[in-house]
């Protein structure tokens, strides 16, 4: 299975394409699996697809309120639960925030590169290091259930600005 890594979100790219393909992949996936991408779910995904920045639930809530689409936290949390469960959105524990997935239609484990200055997030495949993680865990007798790697640093633009 070849995995298109997509454009580098840290450099200027045709982001319109990220947005449209992210939404289209989610719509196709839902159609095939008989899942309901309700207007609120679709809008939350769209908000996250607008940039490669991680957003907190309350940032998303503010945007939904501005759209006139439900103003209660449970509405956002339920939509996020759905989007995370089906792999359209990733939850970033470190930031307690959410980022749209770069390639939602494929089963994958991700490594996230998080800019500590601007909260931009890039997603890259964990596949090359998954075996190393398992080996290190196994050495301690630990049974791995899920692997999420969050790497913190500075994106190219913030390195220049610093
Ligand atoms: Zn983009
Ligand atoms: Zn992903
Ligand atoms: Zn940055």
Keywords:
162 residues, Arc Repressor Mutant, subunit A, three-stranded mixed beta sheet
Question: Could you outline the blueprint of secondary structure elements for this entry?
Answer:
Layout: H1 15-33, H2 39-49, H3 57-67, H4 73-85, E1 89-92, E2 97-100, E3 110-115, E4 121-125, H5 127-139, E5 149-153, H6 156-161
Parallel strand pairs: 3-5
Antiparallel strand pairs: 1-2, 3-4
The structure holds zinc ion (3 copies).
Residues 90, 101-102, 108, 110, 123 line the site of one zinc ion.
Written overview of the protein:
It is a single chain. This protein has 162 residues and is an alpha+beta fold. It has one domain (15-161): Winged helix-like DNA-binding domain superfamily/Winged helix DNA-binding domain (Arc Repressor Mutant, subunit A, Orthogonal Bundle), CATH 1.10.10. Helices cover 45% and strands 15% of the residues. It has helices spanning 15-33, 39-49, 57-67, 73-85, 127-139, 156-161, and strands at residues 89-92, 97-100, 110-115, 121-125, 149-153. The strands form two sheets. The protein has a three-stranded mixed sheet, with no helix packed on it. A hairpin with a 5-residue loop joins β3 and β4. α1 (15-33) packs antiparallel against α2 (39-49) and α2 crosses α4. It is globular. The mean pLDDT is 90. Bound molecules: zinc ion (3 copies). The site of one zinc ion (ZN) has 8 residues, from α6.
